[in-house]
Amino acid sequence: MGSTTSSEGGRTFSRRWVLGAGATTLLTTGVTACGSGGGSGSGGDTLTALVYGDDAVKVQEKAVARFNGSAAAKSAKGTVKLQKVPGTEYPAKLRTAMGSPNAPDVLFNWGGGSIKAYREADQLVDLTDTIKGDPVLKDGFLPSVLAAGGLDGRNYGIPMRGMQPVILFYNKSVFTEHKLQPPTTWDQLLDINAKLKKAGITPFALGGSDIWPELMWLEYLVDRIGGPEVFERIKNGDASGWGDPAVLKAAQYVRDLIDDGAFGKGFSSVSYVNGGAPAVFAQGKAAMHLMGSWEYSTQLGKFPEFAKNNLGWAAFPEIEGGSGDVRNVVGNPTNYWSVNARTRNKDAAIAFLKDCASEAYAKDLVANGDIPTTSNAAGLLDAAPNPEFARFQYEMVEQAPAFTLSWDQAVDPSVQTPMLTEINKLFVGQSTPSRFVSALQGLR
Amino acid sequence: MTASSTRAGRPHAAWALPGVLFFSVFAVAPMVLAFYLSFTEWNGLGDPRPVGLANWQRLLDDPRLTQSLWLTALLTVTSWAFQTVVSLLLGVWAAGRQRNRAVLSAIFFVPFLLSSTAIALLFFALLDPNFGIIQQDTLGSSSGAFLAIVFVGGWQFIPFHTLLYQGGARQIPEVLHQAAAIDGAGRYRRFFSITLPQLRNTMATSGVLMVVGSLTYFETVLILTQGGPGTDTAILPYLMYEAGFKSYDFGYASAVASFLVATATGLSLLLVRMTGFGAMRSTREGM
């Protein structure tokens, strides 16, 4: 009997052990996600920079090489070593690493809620005065982008990647065929929906199984109806901000769109990440797609013909009677570098961050298909893979009175998951707009 | 063999040392730590702060716990019924000696060799409402998402249980069938009066494994539904993952984990007792 139960018992626990151990080993050993952190000692410090390891990391690799050979690195007596962490694992890895003795000196993040816990634990260098006192950093970046990475009016990050505004993409051939123009007002949008449905075309592609594409609709609707102040309040920890009439109205607009069939029937089973929604859009089964600017490169990769000839883009339409400026933008302004308060060489870290404001850095971003958030970027955009799209994006962000960071990145991680769950419930019809509002007000 | 071990008539206790050591370091210690963490508040940064029973209080007040317990029970029962019926029939069929059955059995076994993640990704693509085989909003409806999880789990684990039943059925002495056939028992009569009772222990073994397996079911839910639509497929292990690795609420996640350990241990002890799984009684009594 003994042997039977123990082997069966082993099966019982294995899953929990793996997951449970994940949580507890953080405490005991502080998993060495970031490898050899601190300095080697010989002739200066080696700083570790932890970065999200996707295609765009090439730009940071070049920056590191440039910095390590520069006079600035010599005078600050420090060099930088890049530590790449693949994709979706990044936030969890960063959390683990920052809790360990081998924490990185410089860390990639999304600003806002993604750094709130670190700020509260006094793990980040407040860069506000550094930026104010340094002409390169102060005037180097678009102000809305620089501000969006901070918390409560203080700066904790330096912009270091391309901008990712959410854009209303449309299929030019579908629009031409049905004699339509991209909507500039909400009424026009509803009118277009009606015409498309009559023609048997789903108005909007939506990757509902990922939930965050659903979030984009609420972000823009709340902004257009109530202005950026509504979410600004929520972001700063005031849960009662969810009670703003604009949130309820936005939720009702969403419900109406769904009931109206604007996203088609099966949108909850469609994913953006696995290519479902982009395919529906590119093949003309859906006429429009509200998505981050990366939709362009996604389509270029999967359906290059469509991306080059028939992909159109426009701003999110205005809502009659709404108090939000039609030029406002939501999305990810960019990503940021922050400095660990425990770094052994703060001067070297800041000297490295200044490279992100350089023209060489901006050029690397443009060559990679990204739109830099530096103030001098406008002159470089002709070198972009698609200058027309690049200029549209840059001007959209440059002229935006407000750039609201994606809600899921802006709020605290403990609020993020239940918020996304509530949004999902609203979209699948398990909740009503008013229940949606009261559920969100209850989040702490 | 050393002198001491022969003297004792069994291997020396020291042989168990590596096993015990690994078990303690990788199983017992993390479990104890998780239990400790369940009494603290910790977001992964700095030191855990003791909060007494707060996490446990919250857990018991959490409507999602009730929902996930109900879901887990439903998933267990449905999966058990689905997998047992199919694998019993397949297993008994495959216990025949013909050549083609051996080949087919080998093919049946393939899904079990694939990783759960690969299987879940495959079915996610197959269930796409625009490009999949079933062009409906399967994963967007509560019942659809639930049945998809049951089906995908079955697709993966039925081969394994089929193998158990095949082995069990092959152990049944041929003479029983021959004697019954002489007495005029038909195919169905022999199945219900001989095969089924003789497979009692196999059924218990496979049943315990199925129940325990459904309690720890995770990857499929993570990839296929992420607990959705809404929270309609958020089973206990998923709840734990979400609290720990999405909300960085390690104290609460540890409380969920500890609760899961207690529930699963209790349930498997109960099953062992009820089914006589551990008793090793012979199925051939009276032969």
TrEMBL record, chain A:
Checking InterPro entries in the record gives: Bact_solute-bd_prot1 (IPR050490), SBP (IPR006059)
Annotated coiled-coil segments of the chain: none
The membrane spanning regions, by residue number, are none
Q: Name one Pfam family in it.
A: SBP_bac_1
Q: Which domain of life is it from?
A: Bacteria
Please report the name of this protein according to its UniProt entry: Sugar-binding protein
Automatic annotation (TrEMBL), chain B:
What's any GO biological process attached to this entry?
A: transmembrane transport
Q: Which keywords fit this entry according to its UniProt record?
A: Cell membrane, Membrane, Transmembrane, Transmembrane helix, Transport
GO cellular component terms given for this protein: plasma membrane
User: Which InterPro entries does the record match to this protein?
Assistant: ABC_transporter_permease, MetI-like, MetI-like_sf
* Residue intervals passing through the bilayer: 12-39, 69-95, 102-125, 145-165, 250-272
Cellular location(s) = Cell membrane
**How is this protein positioned relative to the membrane?**
Multi-pass membrane protein
> Known Pfam families for this protein?
BPD_transp_1 (PF00528)
Identify the residues that the record assigns to the ABC transmembrane type-1 domain, covering every copy. Answer: 69-271
Q: Its principal location?
A: membrane
Name the PROSITE patterns for this protein.
ABC_TM1 (PS50928)
Q: Which family does it belong to?
A: Belongs to the binding-protein-dependent transport system permease family.
Protein's recorded name: Sugar ABC transporter permease
What organism does the UniProt record list as the source? Streptomyces cadmiisoli
